[in-house]
Amino acid sequence: MSKSAFVRIKSGAYRTTDVSGQVFQLVEQYKSTAKGGYVTVKNGGKFPGFPEDIRVKVDGVASYEFVTEGDADVVDTVVDTAPVQTDEERMAEIAERFEILHEMTKAAVSGDIRAMIVSGPPGVGKSYGVEQEVEKACLFDMVAGKRLRAEVVKGSATPIGLYQALYKYSDPNCVLVFDDCDSILLDDVCLNLLKGALDSGKKRKISWLSESSTLRREGIPDSFEFRGSVIFITNLKFDTMKSQKLRDHLDALQSRCHYLDLTLDTMRDKVLRIKQIAKSGALFEDLEIDEIGQDEIVEFMDTNKMKLREMSLRMAIKIAQLYKSFPLRWKSLAQTTCMKSV
Question: Would you say 203 and 257 are in contact if contact means Cβ atoms under 8 Å apart?
C-alpha cells in the first residue's frame, strides 16, 4: 500500500470509540464479514497500547474517503487545534439548514425558485418538509376545484415517463418533486431531459424526437416549454462522486439550479438530528410516549449507534414502537430486530 494512501473516516468506530472525521493511513480497504464491515488503518499513536494496525468498523466504502498525505496533515492539525463545537451549536446549524430547505420549498411551490437539488443521507427527514408544502398547495387546489399543481414522484422513472411528468406539470406555479429517483441520474436520456427542465435560460424547451405511440395516444407534443419548478431529492452527495462521467453530469445539474447539501455527513450529525427532532416533540408524538421514555430511546440509540442497522428517524420510530408495545423487553427486542448480526 502506498504511503500516500490516507482516508478520512466519515462514519466509523474503533472498539467503542467514535472516530468519525479522523484521518488514518490506509493499510487495507473495506472488507465485509459476518460480524460487520471494517477498514484496516495505521493506529498512528491515536490508541496507545493497541496494535499498530487496527480495524475501524464502518458500514461500507461510502463511510470513508481518500485524502492526500498533505490533506491529512492539514486535517489532523485542524482536529487538534480547532475549538470543539458543542452539540447545541451543531444542532442549531442543522436546524438552520432544514429551515432553509423549508423556505426554498415554499419559494419553489410559488414559482419564485425554478429548480433545487437537495442532498442528504436517508432517513433524516429531508423529504418530510418538502412533502408537507406540496400537500398544502394541493389542498388549496382541491378546495378551489382546480387541477393539482404538484406531484411527488418516488422510485425509478423511465425517460418517456419523465417526459410525460414534466409535460403534465409544465405550467407556471406547478412543481414536480423527484424523491429517491437516483436512477434518473444514471440514464443519459433522463439526464438530458432533467437538464432541460433545470436550465437557467429564459425559455426551457424540452423535446422528444423519437417516435412514440404513447405520447401520440395521450396527445402530448414532441416538444414544449417547461415553466414549472423541479425539486430533486437525493441520497447522493454530488461533491464526492468518484465516476468522472457521472460527476460531469452532476456538475452540469448543479450549475443550473440551487444545490442544498444538508451536511449530515457523520454519525454524530445523524444522532444530533434525531435528538433535535425528539426535543421538538415531533418525533414520537403519534405514539404518546412521555419525555422520560423519549430520552431513554434516544440514549439507547446513541449508545448503540455503531450497532444499529441504520441511524435514522425511521429507526427511532421502530424502536419507539417496541418501547410502547413491550415496555419490559424493548431493549432486547431492539437488539434482535434493529441491530446488525454479530
Answer: no
- Mean pLDDT score of the chain, rounded to an integer? 87
Residue 194's SS3 state is helix
pLDDT digits (tens, 9 = 90+) for 288-321: 999 999 999 999 999 999 899 999 999 999 999 9
DSSP label at residue 339:
B
CA-closest candidate to residue 278, choices 58, 87, 144: 87
| Dihedral sign (CA 15, 18, 20, 25) | negative
Domains of the chain and CATH, by start: 6-81 (no CATH), 87-261 (3.40.50), 267-337 (no CATH)
Listed residue (104, 95, 62, 103) closest to 236, CA to CA: 62
CA separation, residue 4 to residues 19, 23, 140, 224, 332 (Å): 20, 12, 58, 52, 44
Task: Look at residues 245, 235, 301 and name the one whose alpha carbon lies nearest to residue 268.
Answer: 301
